[in-house]
Amino acid sequence: MNDRLTHLDAAGRARVVDVSAKPVTAREARAEGYVRCSPAVLDLIAEGGLPKGDALAVARVAGLQAAKRTPDLVPLAHPVAVHAVEVDIVPVSTPDLVGVHITAAVRTADRTGIEMEALTCVVVAGLTFVDMVKAVDKRTVLDGVRVTAKSGGRSGDWSVDDV
Amino acid sequence: MNDRLTHLDAAGRARVVDVSAKPVTAREARAEGYVRCSPAVLDLIAEGGLPKGDALAVARVAGLQAAKRTPDLVPLAHPVAVHAVEVDIVPVSTPDLVGVHITAAVRTADRTGIEMEALTCVVVAGLTFVDMVKAVDKRTVLDGVRVTAKSGGRSGDWSVDDV
Amino acid sequence: MNDRLTHLDAAGRARVVDVSAKPVTAREARAEGYVRCSPAVLDLIAEGGLPKGDALAVARVAGLQAAKRTPDLVPLAHPVAVHAVEVDIVPVSTPDLVGVHITAAVRTADRTGIEMEALTCVVVAGLTFVDMVKAVDKRTVLDGVRVTAKSGGRSGDWSVDDV
Amino acid sequence: MNDRLTHLDAAGRARVVDVSAKPVTAREARAEGYVRCSPAVLDLIAEGGLPKGDALAVARVAGLQAAKRTPDLVPLAHPVAVHAVEVDIVPVSTPDLVGVHITAAVRTADRTGIEMEALTCVVVAGLTFVDMVKAVDKRTVLDGVRVTAKSGGRSGDWSVDDV
Amino acid sequence: MNDRLTHLDAAGRARVVDVSAKPVTAREARAEGYVRCSPAVLDLIAEGGLPKGDALAVARVAGLQAAKRTPDLVPLAHPVAVHAVEVDIVPVSTPDLVGVHITAAVRTADRTGIEMEALTCVVVAGLTFVDMVKAVDKRTVLDGVRVTAKSGGRSGDWSVDDV
Amino acid sequence: MNDRLTHLDAAGRARVVDVSAKPVTAREARAEGYVRCSPAVLDLIAEGGLPKGDALAVARVAGLQAAKRTPDLVPLAHPVAVHAVEVDIVPVSTPDLVGVHITAAVRTADRTGIEMEALTCVVVAGLTFVDMVKAVDKRTVLDGVRVTAKSGGRSGDWSVDDV
């Protein structure tokens, strides 16, 4: 772990950190998040009369596209050659969560990591889901957005479950 | 509250809902969210040697810009004339939260609401903060992203605290 | 009908034509187009084992988003407040056409027409369909992209079927 | 030829297909299309008093730029390092076609093909031409947009003329 | 004239200033700038064998498009309904300037001024010109970029020539 | 030095020049520019009551982001893998200049140079500064924008100070 904020130079000015000398290696990052919503929303998604396919499909497409837009959104993120994006959105109804669980996996062969791409994918899929259900439920909450695993690169493999 | 997903037509196909006949009215939306991080991150932000101004300023600027990009990110969101955006990011260290609290307020005089703009502002400010501290803390979590209040428009004023 | 190319000034230089003095009126434009493809593609879309929902849903979402990006793509097009977008993609298998028929309708209350938004929606939905099936059929053709009707604005209602 | 839609996973969900393990090779794609228009439009382009240079130049520039925007428009397309784009727009007046013939060639050294970039270039050049002449001719039609040749990559060289 | 930086709130945080209560009025802004280049560049542009039309046309198109992208580039600028853009680039060879003189005029009917759109148009037209001639002249300089006049809005008409 | 405009083909048509056969090498470009403003602006930036951090930070962030957007703005510029961006904005008060001095350095390991990225960074940082102070000073001028040095690539190292 670093002991300083690498995106700022010695004088505290923001910068895009130099990665030009890092090798091109295969890298993967995984992220997840949740949108909490009312049971009524899940019912509407699940019931036959409702276009479940499209409802979740729009959010998935938004997530895929957003992964590619990451450096446009996050000022200090590098442009990365996004080589694969998968995103899934699964309705969940348990004592802990009524809502959807969003997971994303992003892969590249490039000079820097792609955790931000995975997070951006999750977050924009989540925002899109919120947008689509907000006429039915104003009280949705996007929660628990985090990187769950990464591999490749100098710092080696890492999982949120590592102790 | 609506009992159907308005972004889908009768056959379940996604669409951008027609708002052309709605009047132009003053509207405001507020949203909030949190990034949980390690105490070490807060120390680095707080301590004299570190560029506190820039660290939070970059995330704020990213949030302001993202509010204007909302219809590019959220497929079914309307282009809205964003007339004001304010975003704030405050370090918090309490028993419940070690991290930053992000709040956004967005205003417009247009035909449809701007909750999505407020949420997008919060979320991208949060992602940018995560990006800037990830070399120090890989385990940040973006949490509690929700609309807190809206005013203007046909449906009247609303706050998350309303019973 | 005009007898000159309005997007060029007297000296032949491209410009974005001044519409600031035109009134805000309700306007609609409709457009259509086709993608010709092999029967095998239609079979894959239709058969139970294949994700028909997503295949067409992705193209529809791409079309909706592209309608909003029109002024970014077409240099002399005005930014327009896109207030409604509908797009549909229907598999067709007749002696004249094996492929999909794409239709779009776009509405606004603004100072200038939105034919280009309707066309852009059709075209990008078509490109996205081509992208999704190109591993199966390299010989797809995008055909017959045209405005089919417009209403509102100074020039009055018009349909491609008018004599 | 593949017998499945590669942009969808086994469960039918859209994804950006993984190309990170494919080698970087030189690749080229060519595409073409037509805009049918009235003879009056061709006369205006051709006659001395009219700014022919700019009229076609704007459409060409739009095409060049659009080639670079492909992954922003086509949701499942990969970001590709576009290394060369050429586009031409030639007025044609024959028994078969009164209008313009648009051709594009795009080259890269990257991990995946660039047919979509060539098609996007043609299509946006065509849309821009339609936009510039629509005050004179409302009945333009964009036709025959297809890939004509590709080279490089695992699947080898291919031309639309191959039997 | 204001005596404070309006884009910052009382605590010094950047914000997009609220203009939602300002009336929609017709507004215009004009800007100019120069690119100094070698006489050899002007000769190449002027001589018959060279594509003068395209050389300057590309820069003009880039300027027109950039005017519409202003709020994407300038973080605190409002989205504005750009209703007209004109840009011109004129070769100049005098004792004071060997190069091109770029002028832009932008008009809108909206709630806030469009000086930034006029400046962005000039600047990106200039950058594009620099890009196109940099293989011939590495020492170009973009100079004298300023607003020359504005009209409309609460603050009334203004010209750089006013004393 | 070249004796022709490489961005135009033999017939004078604009194109994105083919760089696919050029090797990937480490490259750097530096650029600079100035914004002239009133002493009152510098006082506001300098004085304790004013949020100096944010004022310059917003302009820096805008510059960093713009460097990544260069191929979107400059039609014939290649997409480049921007691997590092640094930008600084320093208030200056001398007999020659009252204003700010902007410098940028951009690095990549790619197939073509990044002078345009460095210039775009300077120019958009400058525009953003102009935007932030325009309520206080309408007469700002962006001046002296030029490449100051480049290294890497076939043409070797170069500095504006070379004779």
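qc> The longest helix of chain E spans residues 52-73.
qc> done
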